[in-house]
Specification:
It is built from 11 helices and 16 strands. The chain is α+β, with helices and mostly antiparallel strands. The strands form 3 sheets. The chain has a 9-stranded mixed beta sheet with strand order 5-4-3-6-7-8-9-15-16. The protein has a 5-stranded antiparallel beta sheet with strand order 10-14-13-12-11. A hairpin with a 3-residue loop joins β11 and β12. α10 crosses α11.
Length: 336
């Protein structure tokens, strides 16, 4: 079965380097899947644990996503790796195959999952350091690392990861906005260790980091029949359906519209405003004209030459993070 799966991944270009195929064939993925799973989405991951019975909090990711991240991280024999999000331990096993178990530290926020993952890793013959802790703090005792690899999606890259990575090392993590839940960024730590910068590398969706779950759309909290009666009416020539079909446009606009949520039936919402558009008619309510902001952001994107995900980048410092277009310093302004 693993040979057949490897052949399928070969057809998808899933193995960027020969070692990945060898590791895939050697590490028994099924040995890291628990007896009970909640099937959430076939194309990305299969959750392993659900908070309060409904919200998935851990998963075993699809192999092509796993190897895409490993390729971006450029892990080599002896590379010191900090993995954020042990989950089942499968990714940690692959890292052990490549870097060596003595070079791998894996942090898992859920103590129960950490214990099970450590046991399954040991049963498979791998003995990395597995730590039950909040991965947003990294793991300073084993620093510095050559690579920090996060297996969960987030909106803010913790500066602790930059501090714990040697100059020239890499931080690789899925990253998203409230408007666009897909992206992966590859950050290289500066020579002085005071920042890390890099371009977005791939469209990729992972489960949220426990402490940075993307909030649900606030539309239900801000919309009411009374607010509809109070809404401001206007017309537009912009068809917002491009948000459902043009990934690159949606990613770019998400950078300019932090905190803005989109629903496929024509709604935009923040914590204090909403907008609805249909057949060219626009209704907006609250202190912000959200659809007008969307129009300005879209015009900016088109005037910039319709840049793709890969044209954008991120810089992380102790003071926070800034997104940019083309090069660090060309900061993307917020429309809000």
């Amino acid at each position: 079965m693993r040979v057949q799966a490897a052949e399928a991944l070969d057809g998808l270009g899933g193995f960027a380097e020969p070692w990945m195929r060898e590791a895939f064939l050697k590490v028994a993925r099924h040995a890291f899947v628990p007896d009970t799973v909640w099937v959430w989405r076939d194309d990305a991951y299969r959750p392993l644990r659900a908070a309060e019975g409904t919200l998935p909090t851990s998963s075993i990711s699809a192999p092509d996503a796993v190897f895409t991240m490993l390729a971006a991280a450029d892990v080599r024999p002896g590379t010191r790796v900090l993995e954020i999000g042990t989950g089942t331990g499968y990714n940690a096993a692959l890292l052990c195959e490549r870097a060596g178990a003595a070079s791998v530290t894996s942090v898992e926020v859920d103590p129960g999952l950490a214990e099970v993952a450590a046991r399954r890793l040991a049963e498979a013959g791998y003995h990395p350091r597995v730590v039950a802790a909040d991965g947003e703090d990294g793991w300073a005792p084993d620093a510095p690392y050559d690579r920090v690899l996060c297996t969960a999606s987030l909106q803010r890259v913790p500066f602790a990861w930059v501090e714990q990575t040697r100059p020239g090392g890499l931080v690789v993590t899925p990253w998203k906005t409230t408007l666009q839940p897909q992206g992966m960024v590859r950050l290289r730590v500066a020579d002085d260790g005071a920042s890390a910068s890099g371009h977005f590398d791939q469209p990729m969706s992972f489960m949220d980091l426990r402490g940075q779950r993307r909030p649900d759309s606030p539309l239900g909290q801000v919309y009411s029949a009374a607010s509809w009666e109070e809404s401001r009416d206007s017309r537009t020539a912009l068809d917002p359906s491009f948000l459902d079909t043009d990934f690159h446009a949606r990613f770019a606009l998400g950078l300019r519209l932090p905190g803005v949520h989109w629903a496929e039936d024509g709604w935009l919402a923040t914590a204090d405003s909403w907008a609805y558009v249909r057949d060219g008619g626009v209704h907006q309510w609250g202190p912000r004209d959200l659809f007008s902001e969307l129009e300005r952001a879209y015009e900016w994107w088109r005037e910039a030459g319709s840049p793709e995900l890969y044209d954008f980048g991120l810089t992380v410092t102790a003071d926070g993070q800034t997104a940019w277009l083309g090069r660090p310093g060309a900061v993307i302004p917020s429309c809000g």
